[in-house]
Specification:
Length: 152
């Protein structure tokens, strides 16, 4: 195996897909540069209070905060209803600041991003599953309060 090296400044910044974020978010997909087969690695910057939509990962995810103040919100999935795909309940909010490291277990429904009108950024490391299957992210449209409307 050959060691892969790059500099973060050499990784192209692109706009994050607005389908999965609530506002202006940019990211660097580091994995494409270093060709890792063990995890997916991104540097994500949330601007002006933007955040991810509700989602979970098939493998665990680690966040390493590099700038600003943000939050990580964990939700519990409840029963299906007539007016939504399923109901949700916020069960924990964790404040994140520069230097914090947070681990989110696989299949944990969550959202994260900026809590103010300032910039918040973190590295996101999405782990491959023990079977070596590539990690996937499952996204949902929700009201961030009580219901999930659809799978994205």
């Amino acid at each position: 195996m050959e060691i892969q090296k790059t500099n973060l400044a050499q990784v192209k910044t692109k706009n994050a897909d607005s389908v999965y974020f609530t506002g202006k978010t940019v990211m660097k997909e580091i994995t494409s540069k270093i060709k890792s087969n063990d995890e997916k690695l991104y540097h994500v910057t949330f601007k002006n209070g933007s955040r991810t939509k509700l989602h979970y990962h098939t493998g665990g995810q680690t966040l390493i905060v590099t700038e600003g103040i943000g939050s990580l919100e964990i939700f519990k999935k409840n029963t299906k209803t007539k007016n939504s795909l399923f109901e949700i309940k916020l069960i924990k909010t964790t404040s994140l600041k520069k230097g914090d490291i947070a681990y989110i277990p696989a299949k944990t429904l969550h959202t994260h991003g900026s809590v103010s009108k300032k910039t918040f950024s973190h590295f996101a490391i999405n782990a491959y599953m023990p079977s070596k299957k590539e990690p996937k992210t499952i996204w949902f449209e929700s009201d961030f309060n009580s219901k999930v409307i659809k799978k994205l």
